[in-house]
Amino acid sequence: MEILQYRKDGSTLWATLFVSPWADENGQVIHYFLSFLDITRRHEAEDDLRQLNLDLERRVAERTQGLTAANAHLSRLLAENEVLLREVDHRAKNSLAVASSLLITQAYQQADPAVRALFLETQERLGAMTHAHNLLSKSSDPRQIGLAPYLRDLCTSLMASTGSGAGIRIEVQADDGIDILANRAIALGLIVNELVTNAVKHAFAPDLAGRIEVAARRSRADRVILRVRDNGMGMSTGREGALGYAIIQSLVEQIDGEMDGSPALCVMRVVPNAKDEHMR
């Protein structure tokens, strides 16, 4: 039994009371022996522990309340950010569409076929940017996109836009599980657009069937090789003076890649793991 006792000086103490019976030779209890054990320090420790628990519960409640408010604020920010991203995406699409329409209008106002062709080629490049933007806007993570589905969708669109359905096939062979950053995806889409469009226009004789292959393979843990080749006449040896080739060289540098050119073969190396690059 725990009881509160008083000392001679009037101060209090907590004690445990022990009661033991004292029997005679016949087994009859004739006395009781009482003893006390001072447990004041234990009581004080228990009181301190209870107070610490109360303080901890209060802090946890305050922290939980703060986290709840922060999560609510973050949810509002994310919702606002999503609305803003949709608005930016919408405006970007509109701007690209207007620019594309202006280029087509200007192209057909040119009497010189060579100048008209330059306008149309620029419009095709802008179309590649538009398509890359559309694919990225559909990605679950706007910061990066899967390379394999991106190339497949891009080449499907190129088949339709280049009119390559008359016997020319575009085949895509890409390893799954490779992600690239959004800014690199735009540049990569323009590179593929230049190479595939060049092959469609110049690699095959009129009315002849052909095949264009776009392949992306992981060569090492941190590198990917992109190959664009055809079974036609290939690239001309004087391509380095062309605008398209200069654009490709510039874009390859933008994605920290390298290019090894030969007839019907172009190799680029890009960083495959976008998540690792975000961490650096």
TrEMBL record:
<keyword id="KW-0597">Phosphoprotein</keyword>
<keyword id="KW-0716">Sensory transduction</keyword>
<keyword id="KW-0288">FMN</keyword>
<keyword id="KW-0600">Photoreceptor protein</keyword>
<dbReference type="InterPro" id="IPR011495">
    <property type="entry name" value="Sig_transdc_His_kin_sub2_dim/P"/>
</dbReference>
<keyword id="KW-0843">Virulence</keyword>
<dbReference type="GO" id="GO:0005524">
    <property type="term" value="F:ATP binding"/>
</dbReference>
<feature type="domain" description="PAC">
    <location>
        <begin position="1"/>
        <end position="51"/>
    </location>
</feature>
<dbReference type="Pfam" id="PF07568">
    <property type="entry name" value="HisKA_2"/>
</dbReference>
<dbReference type="Pfam" id="PF02518">
    <property type="entry name" value="HATPase_c"/>
</dbReference>
<keyword id="KW-0677">Repeat</keyword>
<dbReference type="InterPro" id="IPR000700">
    <property type="entry name" value="PAS-assoc_C"/>
</dbReference>
<keyword id="KW-0614">Plasmid</keyword>
<protein>
    <recommendedName>
        <fullName>histidine kinase</fullName>
        <ecNumber>2.7.13.3</ecNumber>
    </recommendedName>
</protein>
<keyword id="KW-0547">Nucleotide-binding</keyword>
<keyword id="KW-0418">Kinase</keyword>
<dbReference type="InterPro" id="IPR036890">
    <property type="entry name" value="HATPase_C_sf"/>
</dbReference>
<dbReference type="InterPro" id="IPR035965">
    <property type="entry name" value="PAS-like_dom_sf"/>
</dbReference>
<keyword id="KW-0157">Chromophore</keyword>
<dbReference type="InterPro" id="IPR003594">
    <property type="entry name" value="HATPase_dom"/>
</dbReference>
<dbReference type="GO" id="GO:0009881">
    <property type="term" value="F:photoreceptor activity"/>
</dbReference>
<dbReference type="InterPro" id="IPR001610">
    <property type="entry name" value="PAC"/>
</dbReference>
<keyword id="KW-0675">Receptor</keyword>
<keyword id="KW-0285">Flavoprotein</keyword>
<keyword id="KW-0067">ATP-binding</keyword>
<dbReference type="InterPro" id="IPR000014">
    <property type="entry name" value="PAS"/>
</dbReference>
<dbReference type="InterPro" id="IPR011102">
    <property type="entry name" value="Sig_transdc_His_kinase_HWE"/>
</dbReference>
<keyword id="KW-0808">Transferase</keyword>
<dbReference type="GO" id="GO:0004673">
    <property type="term" value="F:protein histidine kinase activity"/>
</dbReference>
